[in-house]
Structures are given as C-alpha cells and as structure tokens.
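Morning. Coffee machine broken again, so started the prediction first thing and wrote up yesterday's gels while waiting. Chain of 320 residues, entered below exactly as on the submission form.
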Amino acid sequence: MLETSARLLRLLSLFQARRDWTGAELAERLGVTTRTVRNDVERLRELGYPVEARPGVAGGYRLGAGAALPPLLLDDDEAVAVALGLRVAAGGAVAGIEETSLSALAKLQRILPARLRHRVESFGSHALPVPSRDTATVDAEALTTLALASRDHLALRFDYEARSGTTTRRSVEPYRLIHRHQRWYLFAWDSDREDWRTFRADRIHPLAPPGPRFAPRPTPPDAEIATRVDSGVTRGTWRYRARVVVHASADHVRARIPTPVEIEELADGRSAVELGSDDPERLALYLGMLDADFEVVDSPELVTAVERVIARYQRAIGAS
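Came back before lunch.
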C-alpha cells in the first residue's frame, strides 16, 4: 500500500488523466478501500483541489474547475510535449505570449529529469526550422539561462558579439527579457559601464556558472524599458547615422517618425534629431517626407545622398 502522501499524488494524477472515476475504480487502482478513497478526496479538497462527488449507483468523483489553478502532475510524454510547445511559442510562433511561454519553460526546465531534458534538447538539435528573413535564431538553452538568471537575480558573465563582429566580455545584472520585432533582448545593468544596457539575446554567449546572487536595484517603469529597448534596437541596426536640424517643432517631427528616437527641442521652433539607415539615399528620401526644411549637421554620406536625390528630381522635370 502506498504511503498517504504518495497515494494523494497518485490519486491526483488519476483525476487529471480522466474526467470521471467511480469510488471502486479508484480504490482498485490505489489498492485501498473506498472509505480510504473518500478520506483522500477530503484531503485533496483541503489542499484546494475542487474534487466533485456524484451520488448514486453511477456516481463517483471528478476534478472540477476551481477559482485558482492547482499544481498539475504530468507524465513523461506530457512533460516533453509541454516543453516543446513552450519552446515553439517562446520563439514567436504565437504573437503576444512569447515572454509568458519563456517564463513557463524556464520553470519546467529547472525540474525536468535529465532523461526528459535530453529528449527536449534532441528535438531542438535535430528539428529543421525555417526562419523568417528578419528573425535571428536564439539558442533555447541560452535563452532559458537568461530567463532563470533574471528571475533569480543571478549575476551573469557572457561574451557579446557586436554588429561589427567584435566580441567583448560583459558582466551584468539581468532584469528583463523582452521580445520585440521578432527578436529577444536582455535588459540589464552593465556593471562595468554602470548603466542600463540592452543586449540582443542571439549575440549573447553565457559563461557558466551564473552567480553570485545580487540585490535588485530599482528598475525603470515598464513603459520606459520598452522605450529604451525600441530606441536601442533602432539605433543598433543603423549603418549610417546623421544629426539633422529640422525647421519644425519636436511634436511635428515625432508625429512623422514611426520609430522611437530622441528629439531635442531647439530655439525658434526648430528641433534636432539623430536618424539613421543602412542606405543614406533612403534616409534622404525619408527626410523629404517630414514636410519641413532641414539641415544636415555631420554626415557627409547623407549630404552626398541628398545631392543625388536633388539631381534626379531635377532631371525628372527637365531642369538643368
């Protein structure tokens, strides 16, 4: 006969595996009397599990829906299936649940037995994904490491590959993982630079082991974190940058720029903004859509691109 605690777990597993059970069926499965089953059902109710009883010859027990989600018991195949599903969802397969899926995956990964973890990892190493052109591939193990370190306030050291291809060693206090624009980003306090920084997760190569534990410092509000990440994402992808003085107010410029950028209000109703692009000519064309005069301050590539655009438009109308 199973001990009481082990029997309760077995009983709970049976309830979660099938909707309806008779008392006799449960007693046979557990090797106890129907009276013991009734007592165990009461213990489960005291623990918060909404076990419903149905009287009569065809009656029995079933696990109902409660006000709060009780702990679930999964067999091996179920645990692997859930982990694989969470990996797919965390990768952006379903918009809006990436961060929640990663959080749940981190919890599950921590308690998976080694044999099940191997099955999950073998799927990741042998399945062939078909990535979007704009989606960077992130190692699931590394992503889980970042999530656990952020949750448990464990300092991290990692090698970080910059856009230029150079690699630097970074020491950070990780706080948040954010999924934006089909990519994962780590928002962390950079201990060497003593400032908040945003890192692309696909360029992070964690060094084991994480730690030690750090005391969390006050973090910016969620809205500010999102703005910082968006700003860092936008600036980090530019190949060419230019500071431009626009003969219009900051509100005027902000309303015509879809990406978050810092705009400085100047005197006489003007504003200054730093913009960028991988193509200076594309940036020149975009500036023409601001519906305001502008001056290029410090970008010879953009000046050349503006001259090319002007010459092309002059040719279009037959001007010399």
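The chain has four domains: 4-63, 76-126, 140-235, 238-316. Going to sketch it on the whiteboard this afternoon.
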